[in-house]
Amino acid sequence: MANGPMDGRAFGEQPNRPNGSVRGHGAEYTGRYVVLLDPSNQESGINALRSSADIASVERVRGTEAGNVAELLDRPDVSVLFEDLNAAVVEVRPEQRHALVTTAEAEPSIIAAEPERMVYALPITAPQQAPTEYFPAYRSDEDVVARHTRTEIAAGQGPTWIEEKWTWGLQAIRANLSHLTGRGVKIAVLDTGVDTDHPDFAGRIEATESFVPGETVKDGHGHGTHCIGTAAGPAGPRQGPRYGVAPEAQILAGKVLSNAGTGTDGQILAGIAWAVAHGARVISMSLGAGVRLGELFPQTYEILAQRALERGTVIVAAAGNESQRPQVIQPVGRPANCPSILAVAALDKAIAPTFFSNAGINGQGGEIDIAAPGWQVHSAAPGGGYQPMSGTSMATPHVAGVIALLAQANPNASAADLMAGLKSGAFPLMQPVRDVGAGLLQAP
């Protein structure tokens, strides 16, 4: 098996969650471990950890059970096993962490064990103005949206977007020309929750759950409501242009990030298990954490994504906003850097990478898969209103919505087929693959 780095600076005294995370190498750790077990020999792995590392007592979560998961994850005397995904968040005393790592390396029924890290919502907080020197054009030999002329594109000019009926993002990905609506398809958005009282979501929310201790699913941040709106907002919003890609998809809203926009790997794991059990065809995760140049993808998230794919669920994640183009380009963050998770870059209104969008400069899985609108995106806001936001966070739910459209059109397609179809249907761009992957997202 492969386990995470054992770094004394990262694993000091056991912190008091949720505000006592431990920093190391620019990352923040909780002191717990995420452990993936062999599905055919789950009990052997748990028993090995009990006997050698004296892990805390194990509470089991099955299927859509989620009623007290947030509280369990917050207890220092409990480890939580998500049986359907054969994954556990393990509580272990500081003096036993080395024993846990040693056991994980030697025990064949333990596939991976990595330190649990903090994760964050990924809206862009930099000034909302792109550098004028970074506006590459479309390919000049094709048209992206029907009303954009070849002359305009060949001249290197960005399109002029009229957002009276549809947001510029829906027009760019051609969702305004699609007859598909996502009907019958479940989209899970794991984020800061949702405004369940927003009139645009009336009758659309299939299920909600909070995995954040002490907080309901109510969105006190705004990030989650915005992302849900982009993925699945209605065809006829209460006011303004249409902004939702899949207006008839069923919404699963999992709160894995607090009202402050922070969470843990364990909360994300709980949300993934819940969404998969609810039959989500796609999970949208506009969250993550930065990585260093050359850092490998996390084994735990990669294997979880593979297990989700086997059960018919595609996971989509934001590439991250740490770049300051053109001078500084940062690698795709985690968990988007996993090969089995779709990593989404952000485009501006000129269909060029936004100045903050990370790039595929780390190999072995850290590539951009596709690019989507992520600049001044209009969507729903808590309180029944609307607001523009920017970030790879805003690009990601565009992709989730298109996967829902593909799933509606191809109900028997496997999750791997949906991923392949998404990328093969993208519009190729002039920019490097490291920045835009397969190209501009396109609705079927």
UniProtKB/TrEMBL annotation:
Q: Where is the signal peptide?
A: none
Domain of life of the source: Bacteria
Instruction: State the protein's name.
Output: Protease
Q: Which organism is it from?
A: Streptomyces griseoluteus
SUPFAM superfamilies in alphabetical order: Subtilisin-like
Q: Where in this protein does the record put region Disordered?
A: 1-25
Q: Which GO terms describe its biological process?
A: proteolysis
Q: Which InterPro entries match?
A: Peptidase_S8/S53_dom, Peptidase_S8/S53_dom_sf, Peptidase_S8/S53_subtilisin, Peptidase_S8_Asp-AS, Peptidase_S8_Ser-AS, Peptidase_S8_subtilisin-rel
Is Secreted a UniProt keyword of this protein?
A: no
Q: Please state which protein family the record places this protein in.
A: Belongs to the peptidase S8 family.
